[in-house]
Amino acid sequence: MAVDSITTAHISHVRALIITAVIAALLLVAFLTKPEDGYNETFWSLVPAVLAIALALITKEVYSSLFIGILFGAMLYAEFNFEKVLTTVVDDGFLAVLTEPWNVGILMFLVILGIIGVLVLKSGGTKAYAEWAMTHIKSRPMAELATWALGVLIFVDDYFNCLTVGQVMRSLTDKFKVSRAKLAYLIDATAAPICIIAPISSWAAAVSGSLRDGQIEEMGMNGFEAFLRTIPFNFYALFSIVMIVTIVLLKFDFGPMKRHEDNALKGDLFSTDDRPFEGVKEEKINENGHILDLVIPIIVFLIPSCIICLVYTGGAFDGVSFIDAFADCDASLGLTYGSLIGLLLTIVYMVARKAATFQSIMDALPAGFRNMVPPILILVFAWTLCTITGNLGSTEYVDSLLTDADSLSNFLPAIFMILACFIAFATGTSWGTMGILLPIVVATFHTSDTDLMIVGISACLAGAVFGDHVSPISDTTIMSSAGAQCSHVVHVSTHIPYAALVALMAFVFYVIAGFWQSYIVTVIGMAAMVGVLFGMKKLQDAGKLGFLDGKGKEPEPTEASE
Q1: Which residue intervals of 393-487 are DSSP H helices?
Q2: I want to staple 484 with a disulfide (CB 3.0 to 4.6 A). Which of 61, 184, 371, 496 is the partner?
Q3: 313, 318, 321, 325 alpha-carbon torsion, rounded to 10°
Q4: Residue 424 Cα distances to 84, 116, 163, angstroms
């Protein structure tokens, strides 16, 4: 063990030295080959983003990778003048993005969502939903669909989703002998796919923030409108939702998951002796909660408040039509207004209902903020990197590269999906991937057809979610394992075949959508997803799907602990 630790530490030190040497070499090359007119609008304008991507892939750590990319970009922009490097990073970088009202509004929205999530969990509304399900659900498929439905209902944030669904639904899925691996899959495969297509969610705010670019506005839309237009083309999210419902109704499982489900029907919910989350202390929840404590804060307070405030900022109260007001809204301001109103109404409701004490409400404020610190950090770093590369003229340089490459543009959405998959898998963060890639996607497509750009953005979002889904170092993957109290290794190994099938289907249809940007492609894709699963089920029943039946070396069965 000591030898392994020394070896691991030695490898880490060697890798750090190699990375440092490569960065130093890049800086030296940049210094010695400085163009007469500076680094603006040259290939060096792309190097900071490429460096951040490469470091994230190598180190599996997104914060330091983004910061090094920021620092490298500042050195190029300042032409190695130390004082200007400092002012570029601080004044033109972090302070610029943190004093921008639009950005601050997005960050406020995220914090308020975190607080509402903690309040809803403490109120016992989610627990009441589980208790209702225990008395009304009569079959195994319905138990799985009830778990999925709760995940759909908690669409405002994937962290809140993962932390809540497993904790409140385990007793129901255990009752109907659903394996912990399947429960972890249901949690993970619902959380991000639902949030990435929900207009009122932390993901909508993050994507809108990453898309807030002058080039988007030049094309007659804002970041929020661009996000809304990506929803019908987010094939991975939509196909994932279709797949969950289909495999549950068909009672179909394949790969390692099938073995776990077969063992669960025999009473073994784990298929392994590993109980990594056994004895973990869980969040204290109000025992007298009601389903309305879940429904009212989100469906009655938060969503209507946000919608009304969004159209208010778009001029709906000044005679502008609802559609035009929604398209021209200020997403940052509207979401901040709406979420704040929703939070205040939620607090008043919980105090009146005695669903939470004043002290527990106050405790939820810092707790909700803490839950949102990781995504806030990623957003701030990504915004700063985008600002600095923009100052270097990366957009203009990409435009010059693509002038003679129109014949390849139809394949770029599928290519961007693959790139996003790779980065998100290696880094474990979809938000970091989107923050790095989305500005590049917009710069690539902004001079071409608007519809093709929307498909390209959708492909980037889809790839980021898939890579995050199957990454063993992803925070949502880890939280899904914890929520289901399933071995993390088991969750990753059983989830990958399912997610990979969806990603493969999404890739095929992004190739098609590159040439045909129509909602019909989405409908055909969803139907094809059902058809593929139905065909696989038929092959399995005929004994012709052995390679995906989870056969092979099986773990020794253990007695169910629950």
Answers
A1: 394-402, 412-427, 430-445, 450-470, 475-484
A2: 184
A3: -10
A4: 33, 28, 21
What is the rounded distance in angstroms from the CA atom of residue 486 to the CA atom of residue 480?
A: 8
Give the residue ranges of DSSP H helices in 473-561: 475-484, 488-513, 519-541
Task: List phi, psi (to 5°) of 255.
Answer: 70, -160
Phi first, then psi, for residue 179 (nearest 5°) are -65, 155
Residue whose token pair is 């993050």: 206
pLDDT band at 473 (very low <50, low <70, confident <90, very high): low
Global pTM exceeds 0.85:
no
CA-to-CA dists, residue 380 to 52, 457, 470, angstroms = 14, 20, 25
How high is the pLDDT of residue 215? 63
Q: Which residues contact 331 (CB under 8 A, 6 or more apart)?
A: 106, 204, 205, 208, 222, 223, 224, 310
Q: How far apart are CA 48 and CA 70, in angstroms?
A: 7
**What is the four-CA torsion angle of 459, 461, 467, 470, rounded to 10 degrees?**
-110
Task: Name the pLDDT band for 179 (thresholds 50, 70, 90).
Answer: very high
Structure tokens given for 307: 């919608």
| Cβ contacts of 290 within 8 Å, gap of 6 or more | 124, 125, 128, 353, 355
Do residues 473 and 454 touch, judged by C-beta distance below 8 A?
Answer: no
Which residue is associated with the tokens 């961007």? 416
Please state, as a whole number, how many other Cβ atoms lie within 10 Å of the Cβ of residue 210.
28
Packing angle between helix 430-445 and helix 394-402, nearest 10 degrees? 60
Question: Using only C-alpha atoms, what is the Rg of the chain?
Answer: 24
* pLDDT score, position 560: 36
Helix H, strand E, coil C: the string for 346-405 is HHHHHHHHCCCCHHHHHHHHHHHHHHCHHHHHHHHHHHHHHHHHHHCCHHHHHHHHHCCC
Give residue-wise pLDDT tens across range 13-42.
777 787 788 788 888 888 888 887 778 878
Q: Across the chain, how many H-helices and E-strands are there?
A: 28, 0
Place of tokens 């002796």: 273
Domain boundaries, the chain: 1-99
Beta strands in 115-157 (DSSP E): none
Phi, then psi, of 379 in degrees rounded to 5? -60, -45
Token pair belonging to 236: 């991975």
Between CA 431 and CA 429 the distance in angstroms is 5
Amino acid at 283: E
Q: If DSSP codes are grouped into helix, strand and coil, which group holds residue 80?
A: coil
